[in-house]
Design goal:
Elements: H1 2-17, H2 23-34, H3 39-45, H4 55-80, H5 83-86, H6 106-120, E1 124-125, E2 131-133, H7 134-137, E3 157-159, E4 168-170, H8 175-184, E5 189-198, E6 210-220, H9 225-240, E7 246-253, E8 256-265, E9 282-291, H10 293-298, E10 307-314, H11 315-323, H12 330-333, H13 336-339
Parallel strand pairs: 1-5
Antiparallel strand pairs: 2-4, 3-4, 5-6, 6-10, 7-8, 8-9, 9-10
The structure holds phenylalanine (PHE).
Length: 345
């Protein structure tokens, strides 16, 4: 016991005399006296060897000892002040290296906005393969072989048609995904199909060999053209604001009857006339129509009982109107000066 008390006294003296010129020395002090294997812990471990009647007194001495060590540490630390950091060889006041933060691609931003608007109306998202067979891309959509409307969408074929399989191709529209949904689900069906599509076009400011679509399909009992109009009107108001005007023009698609294209008032010039709207004040943004009875029949859906509407639009076109991008090629060139402009969008 005597010996132990002497030891405590010696260590205390040592502690009182200790100095720390820098952070490394301070850390050394902490490890030596206050660390998990430090002297304070070690001495405390001696408690078990102290006779019971002396435990109380020894406990108090130990506590005082511990406080001396802790207070000394605090004093040394305070003494070092800010220089504690510089002495480690690091200057914490230097500005950090900026972390390069990427940005979401504008097409993703717009696609997500489009999807979220339709989700609010109860549409589910469906995705399908980009390499398709002839049936899902064309045949099922009421575009039999030799149908002249196939020329509307110049197709990249991956493989020639043979006797035992229909041709493989890069899908020209995400209507192919709608075909897959009708194949596997029963009405009511309410889906949107976002995705990349391919067409054999010469690349220019206005055309590209691939682009992105969001197509939609709604099949149920009593679905009418009024539902189609209201759905799309809601969409453009959410996308472009309440001021936007719309107009429907009769059109033709093999998979819808009747068919219509929808124009909105030009978002670039507010209808006054510019290059984008070719000075008409209107820009076409989508194709739509009531699902052709033949298409429903192709999937065993009774056209007497069910009706539906479908629509399809290009994400690039919506993004162009929203962000005034007038060259389609910018979307795929990955020029960071272009992409970074969408940082705060
Ligand atoms: N699939 C058509 C296209 O890609 C768009 C569309 C979809 C038109 C649905 C009408 C109905 O051009």
């Amino acid at each position: 016991m005597e010996q132990l008390l002497q030891q405590i006294e010696d260590i205390k003296n040592e502690i009182t005399a200790a100095e720390a010129a820098n952070a490394a020395a301070l850390e050394e002090f902490r490890i030596k006296y206050l660390g998990t294997k430090g002297l304070v812990k070690q001495i405390m471990g001696e408690m078990k060897n102290v006779p019971n009647e002396q435990k109380k007194e020894f406990g108090q001495i130990l506590n005082a000892f511990k406080i001396v060590a802790e207070e000394k540490f605090a004093a040394l630390q305070a003494g070092l002040g800010d220089s504690a950091e510089t002495d480690t060889g690091m200057d914490f006041s230097l500005p950090g290296d900026p972390t390069p933060v990427g940005t979401r691609h504008p097409l993703n931003l717009v696609r997500n906005q489009m999807v979220s608007i339709f989700k609010r109306l109860g549409f589910a998202v469906a995705e399908g393969p980009e390499i398709e067979d002839d049936w899902h891309n064309f045949g099922a959509m009421n575009l039999p072989e030799d149908h002249p409307a196939r020329d509307m969408q110049d197709t990249f074929y991956v493989e020639e048609k043979t006797a035992d399989h229909s041709a493989w191709l890069l899908r020209t529209h995400t209507s192919s995904t709608q075909a897959r949904v009708m194949e596997s689900q029963k009405p009511p069906i309410r889906v949107i199909c976002p995705g990349r599509v391919y067409r054999n076009e010469t690349i220019s400011a206005r055309a590209h060999c691939f682009f992105h679509q969001v197509e939609g399909l709604y099949i149920d009992e009593n679905v009418s053209f009024a539902d189609l109009k209201q759905t799309l009107y809601f969409f453009v108001q959410e996308m472009f604001g309440k001021e936007v005007k719309v107009r429907f023009r009769p059109s033709y698609f093999p998979f819808t009857e009747p068919s219509a294209e929808m124009d909105i008032s030009c978002q670039i010039c507010a209808g006054k006339g510019c290059n984008i709207c070719k000075h008409t004040g209107w820009v076409e943004i989508l194709g739509s129509g009531m699902v052709h009875p033949k298409v429903l029949e192709n999937f065993g859906i009774d056209p007497e009982k069910y009706t539906g509407f479908a629509f399809g639009m290009g994400v690039e076109r919506i993004a162009q109107l929203k962000y005034q991008v007038n060259d389609l090629r910018l979307y795929s060139q990955n020029d960071v000066r272009f992409l970074q402009q969408f940082k705060s969008v």
